[in-house]
């Protein structure tokens, strides 16, 4: 992936492409921002551009070094991911040993990427700090972190900060549709995850489309067909694997009730269940906003009950009773 292909993150791309264009590449970068904002993809795209023989502000994708990179045959790229819950001292020491080996071309650049650098143990951080202060030239370090406060201040101060901002739901939806994911599923997923990776994982989850269909059925039946809603729970949940995804179902049900409020407020463009616009338009005004807010609160309470080890079927049946009571 080229830097230009990274969705959004214009500030981050501007910093990196300026460094490539000007030739003033820092010895260390700290990519900081929430998960799901494309930090790893950008790190790999930047690394490829650093190896590219064309010398522009992005990888050409065609030269020998780009082809080696894309096929996973770039020996001067080193990646570290947490060993368990943290990046450990032994991993940093092994990195230092690998980086000390000479390449066939003494002028070639080496790059290392440390994922979740904010999970480094104190010993690992101190070891890396010494490595940053006395880099093997030419070397570029790319550190990825979600919580910059957990990165040693001395490491952060020696690294060029590159900010990664959270994607808006609209940006994620646009990207997912561009990737040819079903729009109705993408529209729901972007409200259930904090980033693109999480949204993709939800869309690709087996049974997600079926769970969404069950939510639509329960949402409609909860308004006036209480008995039918209980039958739906028994047939669609208790006798299938859908019951294992009760938290996802309830999260979607909250969005269903929120759509009623969006429609009343004239914000149809913000609706998640946009394919149900005709039904929602006919029923949203049958209840006041306070009713739909109460439905959202009751649904969240049901989710809390399941987290407290109440059986999902029981929690869902009780929710239907409370929704019927208004």
UniProtKB/TrEMBL annotation:
Biological processes, Gene Ontology terms: DNA-templated DNA replication
Gene3D superfamilies: P-loop containing nucleotide triphosphate hydrolases (3.40.50.300)
Family matches, as NCBIfam families: holB
Gene: holB
Name of the featured protein: DNA polymerase III subunit delta
A single GO molecular function term of this UniProt record: 3'-5' exonuclease activity
UniProt source species: Paenibacillus herberti
Domain of life: Bacteria
